[in-house]
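Take a protein:
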Amino acid sequence: MEAYKALPYGISDFRQIRRESLYFVDKSMYLETIEQAGHFLFFIRPRRFGKSLFLSMLRYYYDINAGENFAEMFRGLWIADHPTPWQGKFQVLHLDFSQIGGDAEVLPVKFNQYFGIRLDDFVERYAAYYPEDFVERVREREDADSKFALITATAQARGHKLYLIVDEYDNFTNTVLNEQGEAIYHAMTHASGFYRDVFKKFKGNFDRILMMGVSPVTLDDLTSGYNIATSITMDERFNQMLGFSETDVREMIRYYQSMGALHANEEQLIAEMKPWYDGYCFSQSVVCTSPKMFNCDMVTYYINYIIQHGRAPEDMIDRNTRTDYLKLDKLIKLDKLDGDRKGVLLEVAEKGSILGNVADSFPAARLTDPDMFKSLLFYYGMVTITGMRGSKMILGIPNNNVRRQYYDYLLQEYRKICRVDVSALSDTYDDAALDGNWKPMMEYILKAYHDTTAVRSLIEGERNLQGFMNAYLSLNAYYLTAPEVELNHGYCDFFLMPDLKRWPMVKHSYILELKYISKTDTEAKAESQWKEALEQIKTYAQGEKVRLLTTGTELHPIVAQIRGYELVRMEEVPISIK
């Protein structure tokens, strides 16, 4: 087998990827559009969407020292055949604020040390463009501020063009906000706060600036010190700049198939990845016209695992991403999670979407505002734009990976009220998947729903039932639990699609239709609802899509009716496949 390009899982250095001939998804065509967008730009994407790698590519593209290395590093990429006038015209200062950490008390010192080291590196790399003793003069300066002042003054006097690239611009400020609260964060970013002073220095000293991060909160709080950036976060021209399009993913699959490293069927791989990694849209202007984006880290994790092991990973979620959601969890609990914000989380978790509009920026002081909290969830990738309703965006859960994070949150909330024996519940999943004995599973979950009576104070009615079932069914490893799936011209409540790649021993699959009636509804309404449910589930079960997705298993259509918090009736509906 011919040697193939390894996947750069966890590698964000563009030069290393190109020199080691690793697989690279070309995003260089966006460099020209970035130049056209403005001189001082600000761009936000969720974690693990390829921000650092893109900035690394941009850094090497504009570096005046690139010289002969440009042809080597960019050979075969779009930009090599369409270079812009600004290629190789800048001295580039690259800062990565994820390298700075520590308590608020030591952050000014840590920042000064890091900034000083980066400035020393800068003058060494561009020493040929400065006076003979310039490197030594800069190194003699004890603090970063004076180094920076000397460099920028000399560069301007000599007519040098400077490009500032800031990666993870909000990393350590978010950490302070998460762990030490708004008061300490405010002291850093307002008035004479050291971080505000840093951004004031950036202003006016660079010909071009591009900053990337996860949240607009810090930049909003720095507005009075740094108010020159144009946000291109939701600009439709950049919707597909980071992450992978389906075309990118298919090209990757075909490459590894052609090299003999990947033997799985392309359509099967796409079908398995889509529900877990796809679904992101970052601009309302293209929500109905542009393909959704895949999380590139997740795709790389998945395909790399199959190449290395010859099979799909048992866990579709990359464990390295779990810590990212812990950071969001701390933001959620900042100071005190009020009922309105909790209501936002519960509505998204239990309905799958919420109406709202995304704010371009907002200060940390407004994080407790439910409307701003929706925006925060968008920027963290916990909701994405799935459609429009009038002037409002429909902000929905993008995929199963993110949905799992919400279900984990729901489970924590439910367990505070009523402890459920997960081990005993797991036994009922075994019975349902292996033996077709589904009643213990359904009865166990619905009894837990009944016992969790205090949840009534959170969200009442059918939506709460849906969320509860979602959360507990997500603990079932045998199935890809898909809520509200379109099956044969309708949407079933739950489709337990067998994950036969991982669990080939599973012999049974399920469609669940849950009907909720309030305590005040009449018996006539209950009976009418029940008959309607029976007809609905028969229609779903006879669809071609269901037959394809349940091949090799016995399908069980289950209808359950709940009045208030009581199970009224539940039965399996016999079907005849036409």
